[in-house]
Amino acid sequence: SEEEEEKAAIVIQSKYRGYKTRKEMAVDQQPSKAELEAEFSADDRELCKAATKIQASFRGHQVRTGKAVSGGSGAKEEVEELSQDMEKMAQKTVEDELADIDLADPELHKAATKIQASFRGHKVRKDDH
User: Fold this and answer.
1) CA–CA separation, 87 vs 62, rounded Å?
2) DSSP assignment, residue 43?
3) Where along the chain do its domains lie?
4) Structure pTM?
5) Per-residue pLDDT at 75
6) Rounded to whole angstroms, what are the CA distances from 15 to 29, 60, 66, 94, 127?
7) d(Cα 58, Cα 52) in Å, to the nearest integer?
8) Which ranges of the chain have pLDDT less than 70?
9) Which tens digit of pLDDT belongs to each residue from 49-85?
């Protein structure tokens, strides 16, 4: 009937508007590369140093847990070496792995604090828009 067709059309239109709105909101929430570059300048030595410290700690953790594999020349030898290291580390407990990361390291805390502050600033500026 005509009434059922009208109701169906309303439902379809409603669903489409919801879909379109959700899609627009998802795009708005993702910062663009330009926004991120403006927010976190590569010239900010303190931020770069903080990020490097955290990256180095994470890479060290990956190597210690045997999760790091790199490509390029000599990759096969690296994989074999890491496999041997993994076998040696298989006996390590979770507590031992966590002990390898020095959480009391003041440099690590400063690095994390700097990145957290930068992110909070980014988030506040993003929310103001």
Assistant:
1) 15
2) T
3) 1-30, 31-128
4) 0.30
5) 65
6) 21, 49, 48, 48, 27
7) 10
8) 27-28, 30, 42, 68-76, 86-100, 129
9) 888 888 888 888 888 877 765 555 566 677 777 777 7
Under 8 Å between Cβ of 69 and 82: yes
Question: Is the separation of the CB atoms in 59 and 65 below 8 Å?
Answer: no
Question: Coil, strand, or helix at residue 73?
Answer: coil
Nearest C-alpha neighbor of 57 from the set 98, 92, 117, 2: 98
How many whole angstroms separate alpha carbon 7 and alpha carbon 2? 9
Per-residue model confidence (pLDDT) at position 54: 84
Helix (H) or strand (E) holding 91: none
CA distance 120 to 113: 10
Cβ atoms of residues 100 and 64 within 8 Å: yes
Place of tokens 């440099």: 107
